[in-house]
Amino acid sequence: MRQEELEQYIYDYGKDLYSFCCSVTRSREEAEDLYQDTFLKFYEIGEKLVIETNPKSYLMGISVNIYRNYKRKLSIRQRIAGTQQSVEEMEIEPVSDARLTEEKVIVQEESRLLRGAVRQLPDKYRLPVLLFYMEELPLTEIAAVLKLPEGTVKSRLYRAKKILKQKLEKSEKFAG
Hints:
Elements: H1 3-25, H2 28-45, H3 55-81, H4 102-120, H5 123-134, H6 139-146, H7 150-175
Helix pairs in contact: 1-2, 1-3, 2-3, 3-6, 4-7, 5-7, 6-7
């Protein structure tokens, strides 16, 4: 792969990939590392690279695999060393205008609650939700990215929506 090709991929898909990395890792530092590692791996694959479908989903597949490997290694280290490393929760808030209407405030609060609930989902539910709703990938591509059968992706999305609904209903009861 030539440098110009890589730069074009970064230009075309970099923003979406970085946003996805932020959602997956929940930490800006880890997101930046994951983003860079993804494009580094993409570049290393280089000439062997054959993208038959959406390049964006291919990049996200690389990202998911790198993230899973990292989590696996971290889990092993924690079991061996018996230490807990804290993950910084990242809260990306939209820039606020002093004259926000009540409706906008309500929408922002609902959005914040939803992001928080999604962040708390286990990876097996959170990753399909992020790929489907945030990145708007079709089920077949999500299945390819996660290396799962399409039916499993559907059932995980269904279960994730049930969990999110329960969490959001609980937070409504406490708020109201």
